[in-house]
Every structure is written in structure tokens, then in C-alpha cells.
Queue: 4 jobs
Job 1
Amino acid sequence: MTDPVTAPEATNRTVGEPCVLLKLGEIFLKGKNRQQFVRMQQANVRAAVRSTGVPVELTVREGVLVLRVTHGEGQAAERMTAAEHAEAMDRVAARAADVPGIVRVCRALRVDKTPEAAAAAAIALTSPASGTFAVRARRRDKRFPITSEQLNVLIGDRVNAAHGRKVSLKHPDTEIFVEVDAREVFVFTGGQPGQGGLPVGMSGRAVVLISGMPLTGPESIYKAYALVRGLDRFQGQSHLYVVPFGKAQQALATTGAGRLQVMAQRRLMLKTAEALAGRLHASALVTGDSLGQVSSQTLTNITALDDAVTLPILRPLLGWDKTEIMAEARRLDTLAISELPDQDCCTLLTPRRVETRAKIDDLRRIEIRLDAAELAEQLALTAQEYRPE
């Protein structure tokens, strides 16, 4: 099948204008709130593709966002060669694929609203290479002179005549998609899966806890910064708040926490994050807990952690195993960063044996001796802010 991100070989503007189609998924099922979701998605896409340096125009169709190089007299598209235009759209497509809320990214040709123009684009997007094909036409505008089935047949006959390829409707090697819109027709093959989900920012703010705040040395700060910077290409507008937790951890060790040391320090981290969340108007905390991944992450202990704060704690990795987590980190290009050495405060000063069935009352008594609530507020005030560039 055609490479889903790379532009087709034929980019002659007489055949069609290179553009990018972003397919919306769950957003389109939001009923009366749909427009609010779509506006947020548009803003996120614009912010993301701005980094490509390509001036784009974004328009909304039914369940689709259309990205084109800015047109008009003296505008960018008028000064580009066909190859430059196609390469610019490649960069836009690759960047848009990182934006949550998009289920599919398609490099397409935008053509005049005629059956002949659609057929010419389909021929340009395919080649005489061996393999079968199928045409999947969708006529959104019922005023189009022929039906979807008739368009399938017409384009199929033209592609067969041009390239000698046979039709296979059930298991084609290449699928040619044709979408007839109100003002134009879009033709494309294949597509690249998007991130899915909902637009970033639609559900409010949350504070994500990243372990590794140091006693000394810059290694942990660098690692956390690199992780946030890497993930920011998906989220955008991330902020990193570094809390030096080492001294507080040492103070915990003097309270006689013993086997509860790890649980006590994790509860203190959550309390600190909650205090910070109050300043940032965030309504939830997020952790990387994975049930049974380490000895302290038992169901009993996770329940004891929930007791430490009033904000909800989201745990998206709770049911994942190590292999799945590493595979996702590899997909997001953060695995190599995660494997860098650092001073992890969860392993420093850790007792030889860790409590796996912590009692909430025992943890609360430790916190009273430490005045954990006041300490958490102080720690939140020491947070240093970094913004990934």
C-alpha cells in the first residue's frame, strides 16, 4: 500500500492540490457539545503544526479537519514548486499525527468537483505496480451528478485502464478513498493512525508525578526535563515543576517509619502534588502506578495512597505489565530517556524490606509526627518551574 505519510509521486497541480485530512473520532459523537470539542481540537492542531514553519489554512468539514498551505495572491502556496508543496504537506501530516483527538491522518489530493478530476487524481496516486485495488467513494453532497457506486465503477475502470491493475473489493492491496464534499473532492490512499482520544485540555488540568527528584546532582532534573519535552509534542504547553524531595525523605527516615518508609514518602509526594495542584487550578493527580509491578504497588497500598489526598488519582497504567509499558514508551520515543541513570528518591534510603499491606492508621501517625501537611505546603512553595522549549 502507499506510504501513509509520504506524498504521492504525482503532485502536479493540474492533477490536484496536496493537502492533509484529519479524521475526528469520538469528538463527533458529543452531540450538543460537539462544537466546543471541535474548536479545542482546531486550536491544538494549529499550535502543533505551527512548529513546522508551514503556513496552513485549517477548515472543518463533517468529521474532518482539512489542512492546506495558505493560498491567495502572494501567499506561500503560490511561491512553492509542486515538490516543495508536497514536502510541506508531508511535514504537516507527520506533526498532526502526534495530536490527540485525531484518529487518522491522510495525505490527499484536493480536486475539482467532477468525476473526471477524481479519476485523474486516483490514477496519479496509484502506479502500475502489481497488486489489486478497490475504490471506496463517499458522496457527502447528494447533488453530485453520479452516485457513490457509479463513481466507484468509473474510477475503477480508469485505474484499470491506466495501470492494468485488477479490482478486489474484499482484500485489496490498495484502497482508493474518494470523498465528495460540498465544494471539492478529496482523493487519497491509505492513511496513518492518529493518537485517538479527546483533545488535550478538554477535560481540565492534572498534575503528573514523575519520580526522580534528587538529593544532589543535576541528573534527575535533566531526565525529567527530557521526558517532559519529549511528551510535550503530544500535549503542548507543558510545565515541569521540580521539587527537591531529598531532605524531606531524610526527615521521614528519622520518624522511625521503617518498612513504611516508601509508603510514607509516596503519600508525602501526593500531598505535595495536591498543594501544587491547588496553585495551578488542577483537578486531579496522575501517577504511573502499575498493579504488582513492584512490591509496594499492591492493591492495599494503592488504597492507602488514595487516602493521602482528596483529589482523584488517575492511574492510566494500572493494568499494564512491564512489557506493555516499555512498548508504549518506545512508540513515544521516551524509552531511551527513561533508561538514563539518575538519583531516584524512591530507591535512596529505601528499607531492606518494604511493607506490602500498609495500614492507613499507621501512616497517619507517622505524618502527625512529621507534620506532613505543613511540610507538603512548604515543598510545593519550593517548586522550580521549567518550560520545555
Job 2
Amino acid sequence: MTSVPEAPPAKQSASSATKGLSFNYQEYALVGVIVLLIVVGGILEGSSFLSKDNFFNVLRQGSVVGVLAIGMTFVIATAGIDLSVGSMVAASCVAGGWLMENLGIFGTVPSLGFVIGAIGLGIVLGAVNGAAISYGKVVPFIATLAMLLIARGIALWISDKTPISLFDLKFLRWFGTGEVLSVPSSLIIFLAVAAVGWVLLNRTPYGRYVVAVGGNTEAARIAGVKVNRIVFSVYVFSGICVGIAAILLCGRLASASPIVGQLYELDAIAAVVIGGTSLAGGRATIIGTVLGVITFALVFNLLTLMNLSVEIQQITKGGIILAAVLLQRRSN
């Protein structure tokens, strides 16, 4: 009888996977970059850059992309990609606004209708992405590119190409512009999502499975990991993050517009990559993603204060992404 090779012990596989979860040199480098940006910004722009109000404004604006980047970290950790999160944010915003506006079942708490609509559609669209990729075996780039078009179409269709006013939803607006002990509520929510992501990735078997799937899919399958379920779940988690980001964005803008979220997917991917998560999968870091979000937010705030053109800002963004990928290749 032909012997069947034994599957690698799950404990050993999990241990190997956690190598990608350690605090790496790229995170140390980002801390240095953030400190350098603060020093340079203080020299060039003085109190207008160093003021507490400016820093909180930077972090408030970065929190939307930051929440998306936490979900994107899990997706990229499995060697996937999600190009649709920007359009999904727009669709979730409009879905929340439509549900609030057209269904009276939420009585005196219309903000609850918005929250349910935004997160609900985010989960549905994320699940469609996950099903197409994990069970339909569609390449992530193609599946999420299709969803980019579908979600934007849904946003335009539901809203009839017209923004939905949310000005009267004071509770919803608190998510975008409110404060807790002088700290922006959106920043607190971003850090809470990051904390949940860190625990999932670093302190649970689920996080080890996510990294293992990205590192070597077949080895993870042989070790007993339900690969399809893991891949499906990371896109659903990304969809939840989309819904939360939509709440923060609409709370700040006081409206649900079908054209918001453009290029958010690129900002989220860029923050994840410069944070140290490998585009090839198998290595992920939530701390690095948070530092990447802060780095990008500070860079563009400084460039804006210096009245530099959008073209220069785009060139800078591309240069940062290219440098981060080159650093990853050197590390590998």
C-alpha cells in the first residue's frame, strides 16, 4: 500500500506564519520618518503645522482611509488585493442615506438606519468579492475591478446621481466631527478598529491562518487550514471596514454622495505597503499600517500647507509607494 505523506503539524505551520507578524525594521523606519516630517513641517510652516488643531484635523481626515487600510491589510496578507473599496464606500454611503430617508422603521433614531444600511451593504459587497475569489476562483484583481464598477453603479443608481443630505442626523455627524475629551471621535474609532485588527492578526489562530494562506496556500491547505473560508472572510472583514469608513466620511461631510471615495483604494493599499505588509502575502503588520496612514496624512497635509499643486502631491505619493516596494524586495 502506498504511504500517504503526513500533513505538517499545525503548530509548526502556525509558528512559521507568525514570523511575518513581528515588529520589523520598516516600522522603525516609519517612526523615524514621522518624527522627521514633524520637524521639517515645524521648520517650514511653524505653528500652522505644529498646532494641535492641525494634527487632529490630519488624523480626522486620515481615519477614513485608515479604517479601509486595516481591512486591506488582511486582504493583502492572503496575497489578495481589493480595488473596489473606494466605490464600495460610495455605495455604502448612499445605501445608508437611502435607508434612512425611505424607511420609517427606525423612528426617532434615523442615524441607526444609516449605520445599518452602510455596514450591511459593505458586508454584502465584501461577501460577493470573497465568494467570487475563494469559491469562484476569480483572480482578486479582476473580481475587485469588476466590483469597483458595480459598486459605483449602485451608488449612482440608488441616489439618482444626487447627494442625500444628512445634516439633521446629529448622532451620525458625531462620528465624523465629534470629540471625546478633546480627541476626535473618528480617530478613536480608527484606533479601535486597528486594535481589533491587531488582536485578530497577532493573538488568534485566525490571524495565523490568514498569514499562512498568503505565505503558502498549498502548505496551509495540507496543514488543515480551510483556505477558501479564510480568503472569503478577509473580504467580508474588508466590507465591514468599508461600512465603518462610510459612517465616518458621511458624518464629516453631512451628506451621502455617490461620487465620494475616488482613489481611496490606492491610498489604503499605499498605506499598507509602506507599513511593511508584503504584496506577495505571508507578512502583515497592523502597527505598520497605522504608521503608514499617519505618514501619508502628514505628508499631504504639509504639501497642502506649502500650497504645492496636486500634481506634485501625486508624484510624491507614487515615489513613496515605489520606495516602499523596493525596500520590501531588499528585505525579501
Job 3
Amino acid sequence: MPSHKLLFLLGGSEAFDAVAAEFVPAAGGRDSRIVVLAQSSGGWEKHESEYVQPWIREGVFQYYPIVPDEKGALDLDTASAKLREATGIFIGGGHTPTYHRLYATEPIRSVIRERYQEGVPIAGVSAGALIALEICVLFPEAEGDSFQILPGLGLVKDVMLGVHFSDRRALPELLEAMVKTQTEMGWGIDGAACAVLEDGSFKGVLGQSVYEIKMEDFDTTSYRMVECTTVYSRWGAA
């Protein structure tokens, strides 16, 4: 496995095929043991094929879901053991607060961070990408709910994300998160796109569009947005 640290931040499930050809070789190719962090057993059963078929086409046959029980709790010992054996970790999409509660809090948070530092590639789609940040923003889900700013996994610092960026017109929400957290840099990641980081630095995109947003003035929410066009290809996916 590579000694560098790789992080794949997917805007949506439409990026699965584009990412597999880079994520699977980074995780060990045919010898990969990919652990999937899911929000529920029902959600995993519904979306299993969508997640794993791109990996299977790349030669993967070992993948292991981690899901909470019917009460929404994890078997922490089993989850930690699976993560410590993983050669790749994929954090699913869905309800961001649930993913944060399950996987961005201790003790699982420290295990994921440890594996990342050891060179295990990590990918997160939508909610899974959002909890990978140093700061995880949870927007109100209903009128009267409060805006929450919580510690994330801390795999990438000094950036905010907008996922499903173009199709959900997520720019205003991303700008709001940037202002509230006083974060100068943001990335808008389309549903069929992935931003790839090596050792904490942005290296390119897979699939469709990723947009870099630079906040120029927090008081007036003045910003500059540029489409990123550099295609990432360490393993030949491009």
C-alpha cells in the first residue's frame, strides 16, 4: 500500500464509477479489504450493489459493512477491529447527523484517523465527505432547529464543502457555512465528481466538476469561484 495519505471526497453516488479505478488500486487492488461505514442495515441492503459493483469490476471481492443495530448503536469492538484490518475505508452517504454521531465521535473517530495516518485511503460520499472535514456543519433540518458546528474527523483542514453542488444549487448554503466558520476556502463538488487530496493537499478531480470558492470578504460575502479542471490519475483512471 502507498505511504502517502489519500482522501477521496465524492459529491454524490454518480461519481462511484469514476472513483473506483483510483480508490481500489490505492486500497490494494484484488487484495483490498474495504470497510464500508453505513448509517443503517436497511440503507446498506438497499444500496449495497450501487456501492460495490464498481469495486467488483476492479477485482475486489472482500468488502465488509459496518452498520448500527436496531437501536442505532455500534458494536464498538467489532467496528474497531474491522477498521484496523481494512486496506480501504468508504464512508457512505445519507443523513449527515447520523454519520457524525456514529463515526466522527470517539472511539471510532480516533481509529479512522489512525488508519488514515497509516496510509489507508479513505473515501466519503456526500454526508461521508462532510464529516471528513475538521469542522462539520449541520444545517437546521426543520424550522426552529439550531445551526450546529461540530468537530469532524479532521482529515482535511481549513475548507468547507458543498456536495451535490450544481444539482442542489448548494452555493448559498456553502457560503453560509464558510461565513459562520470563518473559513476562506470552499469546494463545491457536483454529484458526479470527486475531489482528491494527497497528504492533505488538493491534487485534482475525478468525474465531473469541482469548484474552488475563495472568500474575499466575510462581511459582504464576496467570493471568487473557479472550476477545477486538473484530472487526478495516479493509477491510470484518467
Job 4
Amino acid sequence: MKVSILAAAVLGITACHVGGGYTVGGTVTGLRGSGLVLQDNSGDNLTVQASGSFVFSSGIDQGGAYSVTVATQPSNPAQTCSVHNGSGTIGTADIGNVVVNCTQAGRFAYVVNMAANSISGYSIDAATGRLTELVNSPFAATGTTPVAAVVDPNGSYLYVANNGSNNVSVYSIDDSSGALTSAGQPVAAGNEPFAILVDPADQFLYVANTKDNTISVFAIDNSSGVPTAISGSPFSSGTQPTSMKTDPGGNFLYVTDYAAGEVTAFSIEAGAGSLATIGGSPFGAGSGALAIAIDPTGTYAYVANETGDSISMYSINPDTGALAALSGSPMPTGSSPESVAVDPAGRFLYAANVPGANEFSSYSITPSSGELTRAASIGAGTFPLNVVIDPAGTFAYVANENSNDVSVFSIDSVTGALAAVPGSPFAAGAESRSVAID
């Protein structure tokens, strides 16, 4: 069940707790196990039973510090929960933007098939990574020319951007079987939507419209998953936006601008979802800036430059969200990177490379500098377009557009080495373009 913190955040702006201090809270997403205990300042414990909003009972006076951590991880099933926006100093308002994301090994995979106007659904074998097609898969798309998909952080809904019909489809996900059911008529977006994203707190949906050069922003309904455009949407972006990522705390949004070879950066208004361009934006990237990845600490960003045959590397200012190019950026790749992803531990970057190479590569990330060193490469399908790492960091999934299938690789957690899992690649529909993992 999704519980929005929008009301709490708005009330917190004007709160004044004389004598009792200000409260600290936020949102938990993806919680399926039991026994999660959060702790503030090593003394105030809070047991959380389900995804949704939370508030610690003890108040903290103005000027006091707060530090939210996970005291006990959930079990049955075992999960790993991480805290973002978890520490700071109390000002003159309640704190409502702490984000706690809980993950486990992926259960279901969904592949968007552009030419087939369908979505292939699979169950994931947790031990081997093998895919088994779901009953009634592929599922018919409710829009035209689907190109991108994302599962919300609570694993309840699949959102699909339809490039041909200029809208977004919403599907509910059956928690037991993984089956998709349309949640209603598609919601209008801008012209030629190309990328789609849900913020870490599961409150807002972002859609990049390549023809309009805009970002549409929607508030997500708590009970139905249906998005509604917020005031001020759509927001102007750079030229031909093609990919989006937020930092782990959902404070900043980064958008690749393909035609301009840049990255536009926005601050996100807490509890409202609206966008404001940050100082220094846009930031230079390489030719054909196509896709972006952010490391799990929100320290580094990486951009795949398709026509520049390179990867741009940046550090992220945690206070302003500004990007600064790292030494050696952009780094030549020798082929055209189409998509990049960072593993959940932040140790490796993975890139899908085309056209001649048709390979999947891993790069080790130097923790102190964020710089990349090529670690391994392996053959993928024909024209690999999109790579996704499962939440446990055990497997990588690559959608191959021209061979109409999905390659699945196991990941060596020490070396980053890749190995095709038994049965890979797995058949999908015509022009499979995007993978989403629940």
C-alpha cells in the first residue's frame, strides 16, 4: 500500500513545535519482509510494518542533529534497506524527506517490444537468473509503439512510455503471478515520450518527451497507481531528452539531451515534484548523450555518449546537485554505448555497446575518484539497447532490439566478470527495447 507524504511535507513547512521539538520522518518503499527497525540518533527505535510514511515519536529541538539508520533489516523474505536523506540538522520545520528503499532479488522481468506493441513478462529464477515466460505473456500494450518501462519502487505498478501514441500506460502487477492488468486508459504525455522514471519515494512519475524537449511530471495516486499531471507540467528541458535518473534521495533529476550532447540538471521540490534548473546546468557531455546512470551513494554520474563512442564521468555536489567532470572524462569506449547501469554496491558500471561490437562490458569504479577501468566484455544479442541490473546485483539483463530477445548474465561480485546464464538469450517480441525488473 502506498502512503503519500505530500500532506506531511506541506504541514511540516509551517510547523512549530514549542518545547516538544520537530519530528523526523519520511517514506519506506519496497518493504515485503517483517522486522524492519529504523533508528534515529542511536536511541529512538521505530518498527515499520509496511511501505508508506513513517515518523519517529521523539522530537528534536531546532539546531539539533538527526541521523536515521537501519537497526534491523527485514526478514522472511530477507531484504536490504538503505537510507537516503537520513542525516542533517533541524531547522524550523519537521523533516519529512527521509527515504528508505528496501530491495531483494528480482522476481519478475518485463520487456517492452516496440514493433509488436506488447510487453513480455517473465518470472526470474533467483538462483540462476533464468527467465520463464509468464502465463498469458506477451501482454498487449494499451498504447502505440512502447519504448520504455519502469516498475515503481513498491513493485505494484508497471509504467510504459508509448512513443507513437504520446501517452503513458499503467499496469497493476499481480504480486503472486507477476501478471499485468491495465489500470485504465493511458495518460497523455508530451510528443514522442522516450524515457520514464518514478522517484525513489514512489510519489511522482517523470516522462521525457523528445519532440517537445520537455519533462512531464505526474503525481501518483496512492491507491490506483494512476498519474495526474502536477501544476506547471510539462517543464522545459534540453534538446531531445532521452534518459533520466534521480539521485538516491530523489533531490535532483538528471536528463541527457541527445542532440545537444549535454546533461540538464534539476532540483526537485520535496513533496511537490516540480522541477527547477540548478546553477551551471546544462553540463557538457559527449556527442549523442543517450543514457545516464547514478551510483547508489549519489556521488558519481555516468553518461553514455552514443555517437561520441565514449562515457562521460562526473562527481555530484551533494548540496547543489551540480556536476563536475572527472579526470579523463569522457573516456573512449571504442564502440557506441547505448545504455549504462551501476550495480547496487557501486563497484561496477555496465554498458551495452553497438553497433559493430554487439557486446556487454563491465568497468570497475575507483571508489575514491569515480574513474572507470574496463574489467570485462562479453557478446550480447544484436543491437543491445538497454541494460538493467537486478536489485541484488547478481544478474544483468540486456534488451536486444534486432534479435528480439533478452540476454541475461551472472555478475561476479568481486571481479565484475560476466557469464551468460543457461538458456540465454531468451526470446521476446519484435524490437525489444527496454527491461524493467520487479
